[in-house]
Amino acid sequence: MSQFISLQVGQCGNQIGSAFWPLALHEYGVQTTNTGMNLLKTQRDHVKNIGDLSDAFDSFFVVPDNSHDLCFKSITDLKRAKVKARAILIDMEDSVVGGLRKGPVRDLFDQACVVTNYPGAVGYHTYGTEYQEKLEDTIRHMVEKCSRLHGFLLMHSVGGGTGSGLGTAVLKLLADNYPTIDRLVSCIYPIVMQDVVTAPYNVLLSTRELIDYATCVFPIENESLLDICNAQLKVKGNTEQINYNVSCKPFQDMNSIVANMLLHLTSGSRFPGNLNMDMNEIATNLVPYPKLHYIFSSVSPLTLSAPTMYSVSGTKLIDEIFINAWSRNNQLIKVDPLQSGSMILSAAHVARGNCSVNDLKRNIERFRKKVTFTDWSNEAMKVGLCSVPPAGHSTSLLCLLNSSSMISLFKNVVEQFTRLYRKKAHVYHYTQVRGFEETHFIDCKETISNLIMQYTELQSESQKNISRLQVL
């Protein structure tokens, strides 16, 4: 099975990580809280072959060679076997990382893979340079513990200082040192009214780096996460959900949604399946042109956590999961890929658990009728079917789309930047940093504008009728 290294950068990235690791353990049937015993028992009973969980355990965890029993059931078992997460924790202040070090999964993290400092600061040119050697050594330390490294999972925000600056500096470092390893970025885009006044600058600068150095980017908007959480809290029964993320309570549900998406995304590389989709197939099938690698994502069913096993059976309920995945209520970004005028460049549907090939075929035909593909990508539909369901569900679906509707995200980035930059507000904060020139803003804006033009051309492209050659 493939192995992945998680890089959690900044406050946001480490908050997502604090939700990710307990959920990952629950997916492997490992208890992290006293209240989770019934769920874990049901999860283990629901998996047809319990060996599938054990065989895939080292995808996210480093298990010492002297440990022969991979059927762990509790945090105590992991501590006794000296199991460590394939995680690198990076932040220039210690609040969230400190919470992880004191939380229920604290023993999972290798202290040699924690990079922190006081106080907080903008990261790309300052800490990206100052800490480059430390970051390289830390990443190398974790890479050397892998025998089948498939990809890096990078989690960070693009609006703040550390996440956007240091997060993209780490991304470039990965591209330079490990160019053949996939760099899969899950980044959080802020809502229009940002908490950080310089967020439009940070978003523009980091977006340019993501375009240049990521293999695939899975953008997520805080506004979408908030809407999902508000809708789910109104659903009867969600008030008793397990509190996975006790260290970051205000954002715990939002972080769990992102964590579940990442677990589903990597499931085909970790578990067996009748029609499995490996992670390397995502970039191969969903990225038709260089740099057009921003991928829209939606998940169904959406729950904030997994208190009870949610069983799905019957054609009607399976079809409902697909319909919900196409609904705007389940989208992790406000961009609407099904809107009139937008084009689908490529698409993928990844199912887990109790779903058959016929279920996939039937619903994919329905999907084709809902959307407009480009003339050359009408058959560009990748499907995956993983046999191991996520914890808390018997069936789930991840929908991935590369759509020209992503134009609206990039246009918003440029508009927000232009509105602030027109007044030259706060520019001096950036120009006083060694190595940063004001022209860098203009270069980044031009790069994003060129990407918008590429999407626009594809969206308006019409089929060319080429007359057949006549033999004289």
Automatic annotation (TrEMBL):
Tagged with keyword Aminoacyl-tRNA synthetase: no
Domain Tubulin/FtsZ GTPase residue range list: 74-273
GO annotation (BP), single: microtubule-based process
Family: Belongs to the tubulin family.
Coiled coil: none
GO molecular function: GTP binding
Protein's recorded name: Tubulin/FtsZ GTPase domain-containing protein
Pfam families listed in its UniProt record: Tubulin, Tubulin_C
Stored PANTHER family: TUBULIN
Species: Frieseomelitta varia
InterPro entries xref list: Epsilon_tubulin, Tub_FtsZ_C, Tubulin, Tubulin/FtsZ-like_C, Tubulin/FtsZ_2-layer-sand-dom, Tubulin/FtsZ_GTPase_sf, Tubulin_C, Tubulin_CS
Gene Ontology CC, one term: microtubule
Annotated keywords: GTP-binding, Microtubule, Nucleotide-binding
GTP-binding recorded as keyword: yes
